Amino acid sequence: MSKPLELAAGSCSGVRSASGKSRHVRLQRPSEPIGRILQLDSQQGLDDVLTKLHEIPGWCVSEGGLYREVHMVQRVLITAGGSGIGKEVAKAFASSGARVCVCDIDARALDTAASEIPGLHTVVCDVSKRADIERMVSAAVEALGGLDVLVNNAGIAGPTAPVEEADPEQWEEVMTVNVMGTFHVTRLAIPHLKKSPAGSIVVMSSLGGRFGYPNRSAYCTSKMGLIGFAKTLSRELGADGIRVNAIAPGAVAGERIERVLQGRADAERKTLEEVRSDAMRIQSLKRFVDPREIAALILLITSEAGKSISGQVLPIDNDAQTAS
Ligand SMILES: NC(=O)c1ccc[n+]([C@@H]2O[C@H](COP(=O)([O-])OP(=O)(O)OC[C@H]3O[C@@H](n4cnc5c(N)ncnc54)[C@H](O)[C@@H]3O)[C@@H](O)[C@H]2O)c1
Question: Pick from 14, 230, 257, 267: most CB atoms within 10 A?
Fold first, then answer.
């Protein structure tokens, strides 16, 4: 008889069998250096384990010469994954063996991403439009065969202006994309995540969600709102084994930060170099965050290694003490 196999939500497994005679089963996610070892009493035990794993949606078994491996194939939906941070997150999940679907408003960016990331599913979707979101979530879940991870990455920077001068339409647009878009994608994804053995939601907040930025009221309000959303959802969904976390990047290297810095320079009547140096002054580590580091953080918190992390706001900001 084999020892009973306990599969916690989110556990990922590797089964090794030397010539089919091994009596050890290693339960492991790809990111873990050491997995749990189960001692089996007979070959029959190994077959029991494989049968059980086969019954759980989202797990697959591949057989190789001297060993058999069983691992969970995460099914991942990333919003606004046609470029920028979302695309890096898609690349990282795809290289880890996950099935990945990204949506974006920009069809050409999606085509480019699909040509760069093998097996990527793409859906054109403007997350400010409910009808688009409804169509997109159904298409994504169908393409992926279910859903384990939702990364709510879509977010726009919005206007740079003092509140009294801010354009109310631009302000509303930020709320519609950043807050309402995240709400609608998430509410439609939840029934699918509840069927997952390892459901996980990531909400993209920002340094601006932890501190106010002068002249960025719409963005900061939306990103602070998303922290409230993540903290509420983690408590609502914990009983279903679904984890929810917000991440809060500081300034990230890429085109967007250049646009934001230019906007700030214009609003504050400073040079680009002055606002760049202001941005560095508030951090102890004098660098921008590499988008690949954000992708690595998201992979970690949605993995087995992150199974005790929920309801958190995880800064990744080179130790920023405030927002400049
Ligand atoms: N870049 C930074 O410095 C930084 C810092 C902190 C947080 N963030 C957050 O990270 C997320 C991604 O940022 P980024 O720098 O990669 O963004 P980005 O401006 O580079 O845009 C990424 C993608 O969003 C898509 N997009 C824009 N509007 C959309 C809509 N209505 N529907 C669907 N897709 C849409 C674009 O087509 C683009 O492909 C955002 O939520 C942002 O607020 C970024």
Answer: 230
pTM of the predicted model as reported, rounded to 2 decimal places:
0.83
- Extract the runs of DSSP E, i.e. beta strands, from 242-289: 243-249
126 & 48 share domain: no
Pocket mutation for ligand 1, best pick of 89, 105, 125 (most atoms within 8 Å of C-beta):
105
pLDDT at 12 over 50: no
Q: Is there a domain that residue 209 lies in?
A: yes
**Cα–ligand 1 centroid distance for 103 (angstroms):** 12
Number of compact structural domains in the chain: 2
Which atom of ligand 1 is the closest one to the Cα of 84?
A: 16
Per cent of the chain over pLDDT 90 is: 68
36 and 80 housed in the same domain: no
192 with 134, same domain?
Answer: yes
Catalytic residue ranges: 219
Atom from ligand 1 closest to the CA of residue 251: 3
Domain assignment of residue 235, given as a range: 75-316
The average pLDDT across 165-173 equals: 97
Atom of ligand 1 nearest to the CA of 106: 37
Q: List the single range of 17-26, 128-137, 234-243 with lowest mean pLDDT.
A: 17-26
51 & 80 share domain: no
Residue 276 maps to which CATH number? 3.40.50.720
Kindly state whether residue 3 falls inside one of the protein's structural domains.
Answer: no
Q: How far does residue 178's CA lie from ligand 1's centre (Å)?
A: 9
Q: What are the tens digits of pLDDT across the range 199-236? A: 999 999 999 999 998 999 999 999 999 999 999 999 99
Q: Are residues 250 and 311 in the same domain?
A: yes
The mean pLDDT value for 59-74 works out to: 50
Residues 55 and 159 in one domain: no
SS3 state of residue 128: coil
